[in-house]
Every structure is written in structure tokens, then in C-alpha cells.
Amino acid sequence: MYRLKLAILFRRILFLPLLILIGIFAAGAQSTNNNQINLIVRVDDMGCSHATNTGILETFDKGIATSVEVMVPTPWYPEAIAMLKKRPDIDVGIHLTLTSEWTNMKWRPVTHVTSIVDDHGYFYPMVWPNDLMPDNSILENDWSLADIEKELRAQIEIIKKDLPGVTHMSAHMGCLSMNEETKALYQKLGDEYNLDIYPEEYEVKRLPLRWDNTMTPEQRIDLFVEAIHTLTPGNWMFVEHPAHSMPEQQAIGHPSYNHVAYDRDAVLRVLTSDAVKEAIAKKNVNLISYANLKE
Length: 295
Hints:
- The N and C termini lie far apart (48 Å).
- This protein has a single domain (35-293), classed as TIM Barrel (Alpha-Beta Barrel).
- Helix content is 43%, strand content 13%.
- The protein contains 10 helices and 7 strands.
């Protein structure tokens, strides 16, 4: 019995430094996490054009994109789904859509709803009134919350069938920020469909970057690099719309935004820029996705 007690005591003495060492490593890991700069790079509007689909994929293959938002009612949605099925590594969200903003290309709801469409059955171009497009916004017309919910549920169910791994959702053109009812609906749908990754709940801040969408790619790259250098520990997010400048994309626009192809090609160049990637590496920025926020 005496020898047994002595053996137990000896093992405890040996084990104590190991516990202390584990504690130090754990504290160090926690300290590292607290000092980590995390950045989500979200690319929006996949499905709205072929040029958008190919441009977005390039930002994953050669750039810094980490999450993509897909628009279900759009004409190039089938191609977007086919592309993403081949890339299960990409974090996908649904970009809930209630507007069809381009002049020469339109899309309709996936359900029969009448209060959120124009005389041709297309979504209105705008959410809020726009002087250049009078009476062409949701808020200027007699919209129904029931129609919005019906349409959004259908969009969610379509993408969950096509891409069961979809992780989150966002709202195209801020379409669910119209009032408190639509904000509550957004929360309800996210919770119900398990798409409830809300960046604000993880204290995600927007990358401190402001640029003019007529600036050259070089000017924007310089501004992006400067913004990266200013980042402090915590969670950050950058949202943009890359696309290739193809003839199809060059035909897209609306009265207040007719240089779409130039702008979105410039965004593509920023997100695939070697200078930007070097700045991220030098600053030790951790590129994460929406899904990583839940881990």
C-alpha cells in the first residue's frame, strides 16, 4: 500500500508540469486568436450574367474571395449552380432578390406574386425611390409582405435543393431593410432555414475603404492596400461585385450606373492583385468565410 501511494504521488509530481505547460500553450493560443485580424471577402450577384459568374470564379481561383452570394431568379443562375457544384470548397450564400435593376436585362419572381412586380411582370428596378427612374421602386408601389415572404421562401428552397451546403443569406440591394417588418422577416427566414449567420453578431466591421467606382484599377489597388495596413485585430468584411468586361456585361446598366463593365472589371483586378495579396500576407490577415464565423 505504501509503495502504491508513493507511485501515485510520483506520477502526480510528473504530471503537474505537463498541466502547466498545456495551460501556457492554451493561453498563448487564446492570445493569438485575440490578436488575429480576420477578413471576409464577399463577392455578390453570381447568376446575373455569364461575365459575373466567370469573374467571381477567378476571384476564388486567383484571388482573395472567401464567400459568394448567388441570386436565384437571375438568367445565369443555372450556370452558377453548375459551376459551384464543381467547387464544394467555396462558401455559398443566397442573395435574396426582389429587384431587377438593369435596363436591358430583366428577371422575374420565381413565384406568382403581383404586388412586387411592374406591368411586365418583372421585379421593380429599385427598392427605394430614384429620381432617374420615377415610380420604379418597391416602396413607391403597394407591396405586400405576404408576397415578399412567399417569394423569398421559394428562392431559399430552390437553392437549398440545388446546393444543400449553402451556409448563409444576404439581401440584394438591401431589399429587406425597408422597414421593421421586413427586417423581422429576414431574421425569421434565416433562423428557420438555418442560414442565420449574421456578421453583426460576430462584431464584423466593414473594411475602411471608400473609392469612386470610376477610379482606375491601379488607384483602387493602392487604396485597398492602404486599408489593409490600417486593420486592427478583429473581424472585418469587404463586399464587392467582380465581373469580366465582356460585350454582354458592357450592355448592362441603368440610368445612374452605365459603366458597370468597367467598374466590375476593376474590382476583379483588385481582388486578384499580387500587391493586395502581398499586403494581406505582410499584415498577417486571416482570410475567412461566413461559415468560419460559426466555427
